[in-house]
Amino acid sequence: MASLPGSPPSPRSGQEQHQILELERFLPYRLSILSNRVSQTIANLYVARFGLAVTEWRVMAVLGRYPDLSANQVAERTAMDKVAVSRAVAKLLERGLLQREIHGDDRRRSVLALSDAGYGVYDEVVPMALDCERRLFECLSDEEHAALDAVIDKLLQEGLPRLEGHDAA
Fold this sequence. Notes:
Largest sheet: 2 strands, antiparallel
Mean pLDDT: 90
CATH superfamily: Winged helix-like DNA-binding domain superfamily/Winged helix DNA-binding domain
CATH architecture: Orthogonal Bundle
Shape: globular
Number of domains: 1
Order of helices and strands: HHHHEEHH
CATH class: Mainly Alpha
Number of helices: 6
Strand order of the largest sheet: 1-2
Strand content: 5-15%
Distance between the termini: 53 Å
């Protein structure tokens, strides 16, 4: 409906009835932006050099820290979709960066680990990733860095279970 000349424009239908979500102050949005930009900065280093996708590097990073996990355990540790983990694992196996072995007692369960070639890539990417993290934190004092770590730990251990509906308290 058009407004009459000289009258203020009418609000869009129902707009005044809606709460406004200020994305620039909304924590999940802000964390997502920060995470995506930091991850992409690090990815730019290893994508060009090793041809790895972000999901592939995350699988490698988890297995570099925790070898002999199943694909499901990798998905749990990375909070990535099982299908994305499965695709990444398949590509890494094809490239010889991972190896898969049948679990000793349970022949139906296989575990994944970095191959020697995978550790070669891992040993080159880790210092680059740690340097990016160090440069990111340069703007924080030691106290601010410690406070950030404490807040993130508290949100993971107490806030997230409340959010997900399984109150830890």
